[in-house]
Design goal:
The protein is an alpha/beta fold. Helix content is 59%, strand content 11%.
């Protein structure tokens, strides 16, 4: 079955590469007419087809129980250590999911990570505090925490009062979170999601309380603050990979591996393109343009 799936994927890949190398988009248009398929965008179609083929292939492998290698992320490995430290000290865990609503992909990724953190917190029997900035995120956060406790086999330990809506105002939210840090003295602070100017305020306050801090965001302009004030930082796309890394969900793993392979091919294409153009061969260059 494995070799059959591989042969099908290789056949599709070979066919697309053949089109990729020997089909050249039309330059200019003599007349206009309705069409179901724009031949000038065959290159876009090939790239999308390859990407979806990779994702489906790796999802299929993951669903069959095949092992898919995912690079070790030290910040995520430190989560269990931080939870264990909170247990030993008898102090709670603080989880911050950023200030954006659920239409932001970083918040979605943060909710998946929250479910895994909640499962660990339930297993270690340590309180988990989740202050939330957006009203709609409260419902999702409550469900994520509830499912985490259920997976740990301790649904009765779930306390809905620990998931708290503070305010949707940026700096008022930061002030509320800082107040929780100073009053509750959490032993571990997790900050995953979309952050802006409030990131340094919360990270510095958490540092001053002596908590172990793990943060992650795809907002690159806030990464320096997290790197300086936190013990571990997930940089950029590591935040999105974290959900697959922790949950081992086949669809998430397959999407992660498929997108990584697609990026690798894009890098190879760029290197080959530079080499070919250097020697005056523009076959790769023509394919990056669409009409």
């Amino acid at each position: 079955m494995k070799s059959s799936a591989f042969r099908k994927l290789f056949s599709l890949f070979s066919s697309l590469i053949f089109l990729f190398l020997f089909y050249s988009p039309a330059q200019g248009a003599e007349s206009s007419a309705p069409a179901w398929f724009d031949k000038n965008r065959v290159n876009v179609f090939i790239v999308l087809a390859l990407f979806f083929a990779f994702v489906i292939y790796f999802i299929n492998r993951a669903q069959k129980g095949k092992s898919l290698f995912v690079r070790r992320i030290p910040g995520l490995d430190a989560i269990e250590e931080a939870v264990g430290r909170a247990t030993e000290m008898g102090r709670p865990i603080l989880y911050i999911s950023g200030i954006e609503d659920m239409d932001n992909l970083q918040t979605v990724a943060s909710m998946i990570i929250l479910g895994n953190v909640a499962e660990m917190a339930a297993a270690y029997e340590v309180p988990l505090l989740v202050p939330v900035c957006q009203p709609f995120v409260v419902t999702v956060a409550e469900e994520s925490v509830k499912q985490g406790y259920a997976k740990a086999g301790k649904p009765e330990a779930y306390n809905p009062n620990n998931v708290r809506f503070l305010t949707s105002e940026q700096f008022a939210y930061a002030s509320g979170v800082n107040g929780i840090m100073l009053r509750e003295k959490p032993a571990a602070n997790f900050m995953f999601g979309s952050f802006y100017a409030e990131s340094l305020l919360m990270a510095e306050t958490g540092f001053s309380t002596g908590a172990i801090q793990v943060a992650g965001t795809a907002n690159i302009h806030q990464l320096p603050f997290f790197v300086v004030a936190c013990d571990y930082t997930l940089i950029g796309e590591e935040l999105f990979a974290a959900s697959a890394y922790l949950s081992k969900e086949p669809k998430l793993l397959g999407s992660l591996k498929g997108s990584d392979l697609a990026k690798l091919l894009i890098m190879i294409y760029l290197v080959l393109g530079v080499l070919f153009v250097t020697f005056g061969i523009d076959i790769f260059l023509r394919w990056v343009f669409v009409q």
